[in-house]
Amino acid sequence: MLVILSGCSGGGKTTLIEELARRGYTIMPEPGLRIVREERENGGSALPWIDPAAFARRAVEMARNDLPSASSSGGPVFFDRGLIDAVAALEFATGEDHAAAYPKPGVFCRTAFLVPPWPEHFHQSVERQHGMSEAVGEYERLLKVYARLGFATEILPREPVERRADRILAMIGLA
User: How many CB atoms lie within 10 A of CB 7?
Assistant: First the structure.
């Protein structure tokens, strides 16, 4: 079972993914963060604040490449963002329709878990240079994309990370 955690930047996705990993579950780190780290280490320009389209194309490729190993893991795998978020970013960056790049139905658990904007947790950093208003805009676009693709979206409440993890595990039958 491949489970998506998506939503607003700074909403606690990575902290939640780390909590699930601490509990022994397999996780797939966010493609965007991996790309930012690689590009910064290598002096590259496929960064969301320099070349958003190149960044999104790399994210789509990386997220697509993550799927085979995740699918063969034998247990649940929790994705910090992933292919759907990457394709949505590519569509936003290019203004073009990339519907064919979205995964086929059935690849992921049909419930996507989204974290809403949580301004008191949001902070800019070397890896997250956009502001809160851009993060909220992205969140609103993702809500529409997941609905358009037929996912049920579970908006996770603002509560301690342990309770968020418990909630997800209960909803997918692993509590």
Answer: 28
Q: Which residues pair with 111 in a beta bridge?
A: 152
Q: Where are the beta strands (DSSP E) in the chain?
A: 2-7, 26-28, 77-80, 111-115, 152-155
The full length of the chain comes to 175
2-171: which CATH topology?
Answer: Rossmann fold (3.40.50)
In sequence order, the 6+-apart residues with CB closer than 8 A to the CB of 170 are: none
pTM: predicted TM-score of the whole model, two decimal places: 0.86
Burial-class residue 17 by CB neighbours within 10 Å (0-12, 13-18, 19+): buried
* Three-class HEC string of 101-152: HCCCCCCCCCEEEEECCCCCCCCCCCCCCCCHHHHHHHHHHHHHHHHHCCCE
Per-residue pLDDT tens digits for 114-123: 988 765 554 4
**Cα dist from 64 to 19, 30, 68, 74, 142, whole Å:** 24, 12, 8, 18, 18
DSSP, collapsed to helix, strand or coil, labels residue 94 as: helix
